[in-house]
Amino acid sequence: MPVAKRTAASRSAAGPVRQTNGTPPVARRQRGTGGFGNARGSVGAVSGISYAEVAAKVRATARSFLSEGPHARYISLTTDFGFKRLFGEEAHVDLLRDFLNSLLPPDHQIAALRFRDKEDRSGGRDVVSIFFDILCETADGRHFIVEMQRASQRHFFDRAVYYVSSVIRAQEPHPDGRAASDAYALAPVFFIGVLDHEYDKPCAGASGYRRFKHRLLGRTGAIFDQNQERISDAANFIFVQLPLADLDNPAQRAEFGEHLLKWLCLLRDIEDFSDLPALFHEEVFARTAKIAEKANLSEKERFDYWRSLDAKISAEAAFDTAAEVARKEAKLETARKMKAKGFSPADIAELTGLTLDQVQAL
Protein backbone atom coordinates (compact mmCIF):
# COMPACT_ATOMS: atom_id res chain seq x y z
CA MET A 1 0.00 0.00 0.00
CA PRO A 2 1.35 3.41 -0.85
CA VAL A 3 2.50 5.52 2.07
CA ALA A 4 1.29 9.00 2.97
CA LYS A 5 3.60 11.96 2.63
CA ARG A 6 4.34 14.39 5.41
CA THR A 7 4.56 17.94 4.29
CA ALA A 8 7.11 20.46 5.46
CA ALA A 9 4.25 22.33 7.07
CA SER A 10 3.24 19.28 9.08
CA ARG A 11 6.78 18.82 10.35
CA SER A 12 6.96 22.47 11.29
CA ALA A 13 3.63 22.27 13.10
CA ALA A 14 4.75 19.18 14.96
CA GLY A 15 7.77 20.86 16.47
CA PRO A 16 11.19 19.26 16.87
CA VAL A 17 11.52 15.54 16.36
CA ARG A 18 12.97 13.33 18.99
CA GLN A 19 15.55 10.59 18.71
CA THR A 20 15.58 7.83 21.26
CA ASN A 21 18.04 4.98 21.77
CA GLY A 22 19.56 5.47 18.35
CA THR A 23 16.31 4.83 16.51
CA PRO A 24 15.11 7.10 13.70
CA PRO A 25 13.13 10.17 14.81
CA VAL A 26 9.46 10.31 13.98
CA ALA A 27 7.91 13.56 12.80
CA ARG A 28 4.34 14.01 13.97
CA ARG A 29 1.74 14.41 11.27
CA GLN A 30 -0.31 17.53 11.20
CA ARG A 31 -3.70 16.30 12.28
CA GLY A 32 -7.08 17.58 11.26
CA THR A 33 -8.74 20.04 13.56
CA GLY A 34 -11.66 17.66 14.02
CA GLY A 35 -12.35 16.12 17.32
CA PHE A 36 -14.19 14.25 19.94
CA GLY A 37 -15.65 16.63 22.49
CA ASN A 38 -17.10 15.40 25.77
CA ALA A 39 -17.34 11.74 26.59
CA ARG A 40 -21.06 11.18 26.42
CA GLY A 41 -24.08 12.59 24.68
CA SER A 42 -23.82 15.12 21.89
CA VAL A 43 -20.28 16.31 21.41
CA GLY A 44 -19.71 19.52 23.33
CA ALA A 45 -23.32 19.64 24.49
CA VAL A 46 -22.60 19.04 28.18
CA SER A 47 -19.10 20.22 28.96
CA GLY A 48 -18.59 22.54 26.03
CA ILE A 49 -15.14 21.04 25.51
CA SER A 50 -14.16 20.51 21.90
CA TYR A 51 -12.20 17.56 20.60
CA ALA A 52 -9.18 19.76 19.98
CA GLU A 53 -9.08 20.55 23.71
CA VAL A 54 -9.73 16.96 24.83
CA ALA A 55 -7.16 15.52 22.44
CA ALA A 56 -4.58 18.10 23.48
CA LYS A 57 -4.80 16.86 27.06
CA VAL A 58 -4.26 13.21 26.21
CA ARG A 59 -2.01 13.50 23.16
CA ALA A 60 1.62 12.77 23.80
CA THR A 61 3.89 15.80 23.95
CA ALA A 62 6.56 13.81 22.11
CA ARG A 63 6.80 10.46 20.38
CA SER A 64 9.65 8.06 19.97
CA PHE A 65 10.08 5.49 17.22
CA LEU A 66 9.14 2.40 19.22
CA SER A 67 9.95 3.22 22.82
CA GLU A 68 8.21 1.72 25.84
CA GLY A 69 7.46 5.13 27.31
CA PRO A 70 3.99 6.61 27.86
CA HIS A 71 4.33 8.63 24.66
CA ALA A 72 4.31 5.55 22.46
CA ARG A 73 1.52 3.53 24.02
CA TYR A 74 -0.42 2.76 20.85
CA ILE A 75 0.62 1.63 17.40
CA SER A 76 -0.37 3.54 14.29
CA LEU A 77 -3.54 2.02 12.86
CA THR A 78 -2.82 3.59 9.47
CA THR A 79 0.29 1.46 8.95
CA ASP A 80 -0.13 -1.73 6.95
CA PHE A 81 0.46 -3.78 10.11
CA GLY A 82 -1.88 -1.76 12.32
CA PHE A 83 -4.77 -1.63 9.85
CA LYS A 84 -4.67 -5.35 9.17
CA ARG A 85 -4.17 -6.24 12.84
CA LEU A 86 -7.34 -4.33 13.72
CA PHE A 87 -9.59 -5.20 10.78
CA GLY A 88 -8.00 -8.20 9.09
CA GLU A 89 -8.04 -10.87 11.80
CA GLU A 90 -10.84 -13.36 12.42
CA ALA A 91 -10.96 -12.53 16.12
CA HIS A 92 -11.80 -8.92 15.28
CA VAL A 93 -14.31 -9.45 12.49
CA ASP A 94 -17.05 -7.88 14.61
CA LEU A 95 -15.03 -4.65 14.77
CA LEU A 96 -14.75 -4.61 10.99
CA ARG A 97 -18.49 -5.22 10.72
CA ASP A 98 -19.19 -2.31 13.09
CA PHE A 99 -16.88 -0.01 11.10
CA LEU A 100 -18.44 -0.99 7.76
CA ASN A 101 -21.97 -0.58 9.10
CA SER A 102 -21.10 2.95 10.22
CA LEU A 103 -20.16 3.71 6.59
CA LEU A 104 -23.18 2.04 4.98
CA PRO A 105 -26.73 3.39 4.70
CA PRO A 106 -29.41 1.73 6.88
CA ASP A 107 -30.70 -0.52 4.09
CA HIS A 108 -27.22 -2.02 3.52
CA GLN A 109 -26.32 -3.02 7.08
CA ILE A 110 -24.27 -6.19 7.54
CA ALA A 111 -25.53 -8.96 9.84
CA ALA A 112 -22.70 -11.46 9.38
CA LEU A 113 -19.28 -11.27 7.78
CA ARG A 114 -16.54 -13.72 6.85
CA PHE A 115 -13.05 -13.19 5.46
CA ARG A 116 -11.99 -14.40 2.04
CA ASP A 117 -8.56 -15.10 0.60
CA LYS A 118 -6.92 -11.69 0.07
CA GLU A 119 -5.13 -12.86 -3.08
CA ASP A 120 -7.16 -12.84 -6.28
CA ARG A 121 -5.88 -15.44 -8.75
CA SER A 122 -8.93 -15.36 -11.01
CA GLY A 123 -6.95 -13.94 -13.91
CA GLY A 124 -5.05 -17.19 -14.39
CA ARG A 125 -1.41 -17.98 -13.98
CA ASP A 126 -0.33 -15.60 -16.73
CA VAL A 127 -1.96 -12.61 -14.99
CA VAL A 128 -0.41 -10.89 -11.98
CA SER A 129 -2.39 -11.65 -8.82
CA ILE A 130 -4.10 -8.87 -6.88
CA PHE A 131 -3.46 -8.67 -3.15
CA PHE A 132 -6.21 -6.86 -1.27
CA ASP A 133 -5.72 -5.35 2.18
CA ILE A 134 -8.97 -6.93 3.33
CA LEU A 135 -11.52 -8.95 1.35
CA CYS A 136 -14.66 -10.23 2.99
CA GLU A 137 -18.16 -11.45 2.19
CA THR A 138 -21.50 -11.10 3.92
CA ALA A 139 -24.00 -13.86 4.56
CA ASP A 140 -26.20 -12.52 1.75
CA GLY A 141 -23.35 -12.65 -0.77
CA ARG A 142 -22.13 -9.05 -0.88
CA HIS A 143 -18.36 -8.59 -1.22
CA PHE A 144 -16.29 -5.89 0.48
CA ILE A 145 -12.78 -4.77 -0.44
CA VAL A 146 -11.27 -2.53 2.25
CA GLU A 147 -8.11 -0.60 1.41
CA MET A 148 -6.03 1.88 3.40
CA GLN A 149 -4.57 4.48 1.03
CA ARG A 150 -1.86 6.69 2.48
CA ALA A 151 -0.99 9.08 -0.34
CA SER A 152 -2.45 10.61 -3.44
CA GLN A 153 -1.93 8.15 -6.24
CA ARG A 154 -2.32 8.63 -9.94
CA HIS A 155 -5.28 6.62 -11.26
CA PHE A 156 -6.36 5.67 -7.72
CA PHE A 157 -10.05 5.63 -8.66
CA ASP A 158 -9.28 3.55 -11.72
CA ARG A 159 -7.40 1.10 -9.48
CA ALA A 160 -10.51 0.84 -7.31
CA VAL A 161 -12.59 0.02 -10.41
CA TYR A 162 -10.03 -2.61 -11.42
CA TYR A 163 -10.17 -4.24 -7.98
CA VAL A 164 -13.97 -4.34 -8.00
CA SER A 165 -13.97 -5.71 -11.54
CA SER A 166 -11.69 -8.56 -10.53
CA VAL A 167 -14.11 -9.64 -7.79
CA ILE A 168 -17.09 -9.31 -10.14
CA ARG A 169 -15.27 -11.36 -12.78
CA ALA A 170 -14.61 -14.13 -10.26
CA GLN A 171 -18.35 -14.65 -9.72
CA GLU A 172 -19.46 -17.84 -11.41
CA PRO A 173 -22.34 -17.70 -13.90
CA HIS A 174 -24.92 -20.45 -13.40
CA PRO A 175 -24.25 -21.18 -9.73
CA ASP A 176 -26.15 -24.11 -8.32
CA GLY A 177 -29.79 -23.45 -7.68
CA ARG A 178 -30.03 -20.39 -9.93
CA ALA A 179 -32.26 -20.29 -12.99
CA ALA A 180 -30.57 -19.77 -16.34
CA SER A 181 -32.32 -16.40 -16.71
CA ASP A 182 -30.56 -15.23 -13.53
CA ALA A 183 -27.12 -16.52 -14.46
CA TYR A 184 -25.65 -13.02 -14.60
CA ALA A 185 -27.40 -11.60 -11.58
CA LEU A 186 -24.22 -10.30 -9.93
CA ALA A 187 -23.72 -9.98 -6.20
CA PRO A 188 -22.82 -6.38 -5.25
CA VAL A 189 -19.16 -5.57 -4.65
CA PHE A 190 -18.18 -2.65 -2.42
CA PHE A 191 -14.81 -0.91 -2.49
CA ILE A 192 -14.09 0.94 0.77
CA GLY A 193 -11.17 3.34 0.36
CA VAL A 194 -9.89 4.78 3.65
CA LEU A 195 -7.65 7.70 2.68
CA ASP A 196 -5.06 8.82 5.25
CA HIS A 197 -4.66 12.04 3.31
CA GLU A 198 -6.86 14.64 1.71
CA TYR A 199 -7.48 14.14 -1.96
CA ASP A 200 -6.62 17.77 -2.47
CA LYS A 201 -5.43 18.12 -6.05
CA PRO A 202 -6.38 16.62 -9.41
CA CYS A 203 -3.90 14.65 -11.45
CA ALA A 204 -3.96 12.82 -14.76
CA GLY A 205 -6.43 9.98 -14.57
CA ALA A 206 -7.91 11.21 -11.30
CA SER A 207 -11.48 10.53 -12.34
CA GLY A 208 -13.92 11.47 -9.59
CA TYR A 209 -11.66 14.16 -8.13
CA ARG A 210 -14.25 16.92 -8.18
CA ARG A 211 -16.86 14.62 -6.66
CA PHE A 212 -14.78 13.97 -3.54
CA LYS A 213 -12.74 17.17 -3.11
CA HIS A 214 -13.12 18.56 0.42
CA ARG A 215 -15.76 15.94 1.27
CA LEU A 216 -15.34 13.61 4.23
CA LEU A 217 -17.22 10.70 2.68
CA GLY A 218 -18.30 10.05 -0.89
CA ARG A 219 -20.43 7.21 -2.21
CA THR A 220 -20.83 6.37 -5.86
CA GLY A 221 -21.50 3.54 -8.28
CA ALA A 222 -19.68 2.65 -11.47
CA ILE A 223 -22.57 2.26 -13.91
CA PHE A 224 -25.00 5.13 -14.54
CA ASP A 225 -27.24 6.17 -17.41
CA GLN A 226 -27.32 9.58 -19.08
CA ASN A 227 -29.52 10.92 -16.27
CA GLN A 228 -27.04 9.78 -13.62
CA GLU A 229 -29.40 7.03 -12.51
CA ARG A 230 -27.69 3.83 -11.43
CA ILE A 231 -28.48 0.90 -13.72
CA SER A 232 -26.48 -1.74 -11.85
CA ASP A 233 -25.77 -2.43 -8.19
CA ALA A 234 -22.78 -4.64 -9.01
CA ALA A 235 -20.13 -1.99 -8.33
CA ASN A 236 -20.18 0.36 -5.34
CA PHE A 237 -17.51 2.73 -4.06
CA ILE A 238 -17.10 4.53 -0.75
CA PHE A 239 -14.15 6.86 -0.16
CA VAL A 240 -13.49 8.49 3.20
CA GLN A 241 -10.78 11.08 3.90
CA LEU A 242 -9.47 10.78 7.47
CA PRO A 243 -7.98 14.31 7.71
CA LEU A 244 -11.44 15.81 7.16
CA ALA A 245 -13.13 14.03 10.10
CA ASP A 246 -14.31 16.64 12.62
CA LEU A 247 -16.47 15.66 15.56
CA ASP A 248 -16.82 19.31 16.53
CA ASN A 249 -18.57 19.99 13.22
CA PRO A 250 -22.38 19.89 13.68
CA ALA A 251 -22.97 19.38 9.96
CA GLN A 252 -20.75 16.28 9.89
CA ARG A 253 -22.40 14.89 13.03
CA ALA A 254 -25.84 15.39 11.48
CA GLU A 255 -24.89 13.86 8.12
CA PHE A 256 -22.60 11.00 9.12
CA GLY A 257 -23.32 10.33 12.81
CA GLU A 258 -20.98 10.51 15.78
CA HIS A 259 -20.21 6.79 15.73
CA LEU A 260 -18.57 6.95 12.29
CA LEU A 261 -16.71 10.14 13.19
CA LYS A 262 -15.34 8.47 16.33
CA TRP A 263 -14.09 5.55 14.22
CA LEU A 264 -12.36 7.88 11.78
CA CYS A 265 -10.80 10.10 14.44
CA LEU A 266 -9.59 7.09 16.41
CA LEU A 267 -8.02 5.45 13.36
CA ARG A 268 -6.28 8.72 12.54
CA ASP A 269 -5.20 9.88 15.99
CA ILE A 270 -4.71 6.94 18.34
CA GLU A 271 -0.94 6.77 17.81
CA ASP A 272 -0.71 10.25 19.37
CA PHE A 273 -2.63 9.35 22.54
CA SER A 274 -1.02 8.52 25.85
CA ASP A 275 -4.48 7.45 27.10
CA LEU A 276 -7.80 6.79 25.43
CA PRO A 277 -10.18 9.77 25.84
CA ALA A 278 -13.16 8.96 28.03
CA LEU A 279 -15.60 9.78 25.27
CA PHE A 280 -14.73 6.47 23.60
CA HIS A 281 -16.92 4.65 26.10
CA GLU A 282 -18.34 2.22 23.55
CA GLU A 283 -17.02 -1.32 23.84
CA VAL A 284 -15.80 -1.42 20.21
CA PHE A 285 -13.46 1.51 20.81
CA ALA A 286 -12.16 0.15 24.11
CA ARG A 287 -11.32 -3.11 22.32
CA THR A 288 -9.70 -1.20 19.48
CA ALA A 289 -7.43 0.58 21.95
CA LYS A 290 -6.51 -2.71 23.60
CA ILE A 291 -5.61 -4.22 20.22
CA ALA A 292 -3.51 -1.14 19.43
CA GLU A 293 -1.51 -1.22 22.68
CA LYS A 294 2.13 -2.02 22.05
CA ALA A 295 2.28 -3.86 25.36
CA ASN A 296 -0.05 -6.49 23.88
CA LEU A 297 2.22 -7.27 20.93
CA SER A 298 4.35 -10.40 20.87
CA GLU A 299 8.03 -10.09 20.05
CA LYS A 300 7.37 -11.10 16.45
CA GLU A 301 4.45 -8.69 16.18
CA ARG A 302 6.60 -5.89 17.53
CA PHE A 303 9.21 -6.63 14.88
CA ASP A 304 6.56 -6.76 12.15
CA TYR A 305 5.16 -3.45 13.34
CA TRP A 306 8.61 -1.87 13.48
CA ARG A 307 9.22 -3.01 9.90
CA SER A 308 5.82 -1.67 8.75
CA LEU A 309 6.36 1.66 10.49
CA ASP A 310 9.92 1.91 9.19
CA ALA A 311 8.69 1.31 5.63
CA LYS A 312 6.04 3.99 6.09
CA ILE A 313 8.51 6.57 7.40
CA SER A 314 11.12 5.75 4.77
CA ALA A 315 8.56 6.11 2.00
CA GLU A 316 7.35 9.40 3.47
CA ALA A 317 10.92 10.70 3.50
CA ALA A 318 11.42 9.65 -0.12
CA PHE A 319 8.13 11.27 -1.09
CA ASP A 320 9.10 14.52 0.65
CA THR A 321 12.50 14.52 -1.04
CA ALA A 322 10.97 14.00 -4.48
CA ALA A 323 8.39 16.72 -3.81
CA GLU A 324 11.07 19.17 -2.71
CA VAL A 325 13.13 18.47 -5.84
CA ALA A 326 10.03 18.99 -7.99
CA ARG A 327 9.24 22.30 -6.26
CA LYS A 328 12.81 23.51 -6.77
CA GLU A 329 12.78 22.53 -10.45
CA ALA A 330 9.47 24.34 -10.91
CA LYS A 331 10.93 27.50 -9.37
CA LEU A 332 13.99 27.29 -11.62
CA GLU A 333 11.83 26.83 -14.71
CA THR A 334 9.70 29.83 -13.74
CA ALA A 335 12.85 31.89 -13.16
CA ARG A 336 14.20 30.95 -16.60
CA LYS A 337 10.98 32.10 -18.27
CA MET A 338 10.98 35.35 -16.31
CA LYS A 339 14.60 35.97 -17.23
CA ALA A 340 13.78 35.39 -20.89
CA LYS A 341 11.02 38.02 -20.66
CA GLY A 342 13.40 40.59 -19.25
CA PHE A 343 12.66 40.52 -15.53
CA SER A 344 15.52 41.77 -13.39
CA PRO A 345 17.44 39.24 -11.25
CA ALA A 346 16.24 41.03 -8.10
CA ASP A 347 12.58 40.78 -9.13
CA ILE A 348 12.96 37.12 -10.12
CA ALA A 349 14.53 36.30 -6.75
CA GLU A 350 11.78 38.14 -4.89
CA LEU A 351 8.93 36.51 -6.80
CA THR A 352 10.27 32.93 -6.90
CA GLY A 353 11.98 32.68 -3.54
CA LEU A 354 15.31 31.79 -5.14
CA THR A 355 18.51 33.44 -4.02
CA LEU A 356 20.09 36.08 -6.17
CA ASP A 357 23.07 33.76 -6.77
CA GLN A 358 20.73 31.02 -8.01
CA VAL A 359 19.02 33.43 -10.40
CA GLN A 360 22.30 34.79 -11.74
CA ALA A 361 23.56 31.25 -12.32
CA LEU A 362 20.71 30.48 -14.73
Describe the structure concisely.
It contains 12 helices and 8 strands. The protein is an alpha/beta fold.
Write up what this structure looks like:
By secondary structure, the protein is α/β, with parallel strands linked by helices. The protein has one domain. 38% of the residues lie in helices and 10% in strands. A hairpin with a 4-residue loop joins strand 4 and strand 5. The protein is globular, with a radius of gyration of 23 Å.
Reconstruct the topology from this structure.
Blueprint: H1 8-14, H2 51-58, H3 80-87, H4 93-103, E1 113-115, E2 119-120, E3 130-131, E4 134-138, E5 143-149, H5 156-169, E6 189-195, H6 209-212, E7 217-221, E8 235-241, H7 250-256, H8 258-269, H9 283-292, H10 299-340, H11 345-352, H12 356-360
Parallel strand pairs: 5-6, 6-8
Antiparallel strand pairs: 1-4, 2-3, 4-5, 7-8
Q: Biggest sheet, open or closed, and with what strands and sense?
A: 6 strands, mixed
Overall morphology:
globular
Q: Nearest-angstrom radius of gyration?
A: 23 Å
User: Approximately what portion of the residues adopt beta-strand conformation?
Assistant: 5-15%
Helix content: 25-40%
Unreliable residue stretches: 1-47, 60-70, 201-210
